[in-house]
Structures are given as structure tokens and as C-alpha cells.
Backbone:
């Protein structure tokens, strides 16, 4: 069974600073996807960034980037130049390709607060 | 931009009562899901649904739960006889993935329905 662990229940940083959220996972699969989802207060979860395990290059999306260490089973999210709108719950998630059946395994989340 | 919508946003019910949570997935999506999040805990997979039948379900999804796509747009989760431990936020999600090369693996989530069982 796959597990996803987020060891930081809460974090806070000053606006414009850089913050890194940690995530580790455990799996015996060789082909899988990793995700970071963002859940703002009273809003739906939205996908922030995705990484395919077979790709060595770390994914980036504007201010968001990941540090994917496959051997260490680590998948951290870096947010650069943090903005007030980044305040949210962030979930790390994992799945294995299964003909479109996207059964995600989530971590417990990190509540990130950006301080003005 | 198309989005997944859920109703009700909050429902309070008495233990033993039946509850139906409703979802309208994104119209061209093929797979539909329910996840739940008990307060303070992780988001957990309940069930996935494709081609009018359950694709996969978790051990949480026991006989008191059922899902249905009664028409071309709605996707419902029914809890037959609610228990206190069913109190949670229930998220509906959909995806357009079909297993082809380039499958993004992205789920689109609704805002959730908070169920409180008294």
C-alpha cells in the first residue's frame, strides 16, 4: 500500500519570502505520479503542480517548483516570492496510472499562512 | 471555466437518517469520484465510478454507501443510515483521463459538502 507523509502540519512565512513544504511517500511501484494540491479557505482543491516519476527533471509552474528525489522518495514543494493568495492548505498526493481511474492517496496536509 | 459543483454545502442530520449528497461533474469528464475528509484527518478515497458502474472502492465504502448517476449530469452519494463517524467533508471529483498516452492524472474537485451527524 502507498503512503504519503507530510510532517509539517502548519507553516507561516512573510509575504515575498520563499517557503518549502515537505512530503515523503512510500511505494513499491516504479511508475507513478505525484501532485501538490492547494485548498484555499472555503474553496475547492486545485492542482498546483504534477510530477511524473519517470521524468528526472523537476516540474515547475511559475512560482511553484518541486524537488523530486526518487531514491529518497521525497517530493517537496517550493513557493517563491510568496503572496497572500498562497495562504491555503496544501496536500501532497500520489497515484499510479490506471487507465484513467485516478485514485489519489493524500497526505495529511500543511496549513500555510502568508503573513503581510 | 468549467467546474465541479456540489450540493448541499452543509447538511445536518440525525443518526440513522438517510443522506444524499449531489454533484455535477464537468460535462465531458468520464470518471467520477467521492473522497471524504474527517476533520483534522487526511483526505481519503471512497469510490470511483466509470461507465455507470463502480470502478474501485475503498474499505470505507461499505454497504451503507451507494453511488448513482441517475441522469446525464448528476452523480450522487447516498448514505443509507448515517452514523456519528460519517461526519466529514465529502468531496466529489471528476477527471477526463482515459488511459491514453498523455494522461494528466488531474482530478477536478468540488468545494465539498460538510455532513454533520448528530
Residues:
Amino acid at each position: 500500500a502507498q503512503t504519503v507523509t507530510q510532517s509539517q502540519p502548519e507553516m507561516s512565512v512573510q509575504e515575498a519570502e520563499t517557503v518549502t513544504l515537505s512530503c515523503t511517500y512510500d511505494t513499491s511501484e516504479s511508475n507513478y505520479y505525484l501532485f501538490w494540491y492547494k485548498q484555499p479557505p472555503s474553496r475547492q482543491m486545485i492542482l498546483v503542480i504534477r510530477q511524473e516519476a519517470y521524468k528526472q527533471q523537476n516540474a515547475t509552474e511559475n512560482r511553484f517548483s518541486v524537488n523530486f528525489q526518487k531514491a529518497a522518495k521525497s517530493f517537496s514543494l517550493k513557493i517563491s516570492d510568496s503572496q497572500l493568495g498562497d495562504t491555503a492548505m496544501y496536500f501532497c498526493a500520489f497515484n499510479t496510472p490506471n487507465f484513467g481511474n485516478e485514485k489519489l492517496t493524500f497526505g495529511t496536509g500543511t496549513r500555510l499562512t502568508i503573513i503581510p | 471555466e468549467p467546474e465541479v459543483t456540489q450540493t448541499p454545502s452543509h447538511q445536518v442530520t440525525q443518526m440513522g437518517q438517510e443522506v444524499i449528497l449531489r454533484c455535477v461533474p464537468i460535462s465531458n469528464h468520464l470518471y467520477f469520484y467521492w473522497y471524504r475528509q474527517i476533520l483534522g484527518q487526511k483526505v481519503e478515497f471512497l469510490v470511483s465510478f466509470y461507465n455507470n458502474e463502480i470502478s474501485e472502492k475503498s474499505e470505507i465504502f461499505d454497504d451503507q454507501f451507494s453511488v448513482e448517476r441517475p441522469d446525464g449530469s448528476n452523480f450522487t452519494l447516498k448514505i443509507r443510515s448515517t452514523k456519528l463517524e460519517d461526519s466529514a467533508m465529502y468531496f466529489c471529483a471528476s477527471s477526463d483521463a482515459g488511459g491514453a498516452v498523455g494522461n494528466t492524472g488531474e482530478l477536478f474537485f468540488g468545494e465539498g459538502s460538510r455532513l454533520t451527524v448528530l
In short: The domain at 3-115 of chain A is CATH 2.60.40.10 (Immunoglobulin-like). Chain A touches chain B at residues 33, 35, 37, 42-47, 50, 91, 95, 97-109 (CB under 8 Å). The mean pLDDT of chain A is 92.
